[in-house]
Amino acid sequence: MPLSRDQITIRAARELKDGYVVNLGIGMPTLVANHIPQGMDVWLQSENGLLGIGPFPTETDVDPDLINAGKQTITARLGASYFSSSDSFAMIRGGHIDMCILGAMQVSEEGDIANWMIPGKMVKGMGGAMDLVAGVKRVVVTMEHNAKDGAAKLVRKCSLPLTGQACIDMVITDLCVLEMDHARQRFVLKEVAPGVTPQDVRAKTEAEIIIPDSVPTVSC
Fold it and tell me: pLDDT tens digits, residue range 184-216?
């Protein structure tokens, strides 16, 4: 059975490590803030100038002046700090962010990502994604395995405008977990969703992927 959005982000949260500074992209990745393992000290950063994002607020705790880069209302944890957007991007470009978790419209078999625009559709801008994939130490993508029309999102070559090249370390979808083997420049199938087989993943994936003899089931 395919993973839900919550289950995808719970699995993504397992990639966090104590002391990490992490940037969460717009959309599904923001849900990771609600699933940080108990007892783990992780600092969530936002491009608009906040280090120390907490879980999403309840209705009674909403502060309309406290938002993330996606303009969602958020909370700030004890010890959070506020700074300018220019300082925030200096953190990103200077290699001070340990991990970012992003959404994507396409990911290629070599780890390219397209996630900022579809030609012909109005966009507000590329945001911080291009800086993140270039400056962050580890880049994880969370997304549905296929588009709504069934088209592959894990492709041989991205047809949409690129955000970055050969920069993705892991992809977590509703069907599986894939980790990049940088030596072979291909994703390796690491885990499958309950009830999903490696053959199911291959059938719904355009990209060439490496499938080991034994693939465990996602636990989340």
Answer: 999 999 999 999 999 999 999 999 999 999 999
Q: Domain segments of the chain: what residues?
A: 5-210
Q: CA 128, 134, 136, 142 torsion: positive or negative?
A: positive
Q: Round to whole Å and give the CA distance between 58 and 41.
A: 22
Residue 69 in tokens = 């880069």
Contact yes or no for 68/45 (Cβ under 8 A)? no
| Token pair 């970055």 in the structure block, residue | 164
Clarify whether 208 is annotated catalytic. Answer: no
pTM > 0.90: yes
**What is the 3-class SS of 29-45, one letter each residue?**
HHHHHHCCCCCCCCEEE
Degrees to nearest 5, angle at CA 125 with 122 and 131: 145
CATH 1.10.10.10 fits 5-210, yes or no: no
Distance between the two ends of the chain, CA-based, in angstroms?
A: 13
Segments in the chain forming alpha helices (H) = 5-13, 85-93, 129-135, 198-203
DSSP secondary structure letter of residue 216: P
**Which member of 15, 47, 110, 191 is catalytic?**
47
Q: Give the residue carrying structure tokens 């959309």.
A: 27
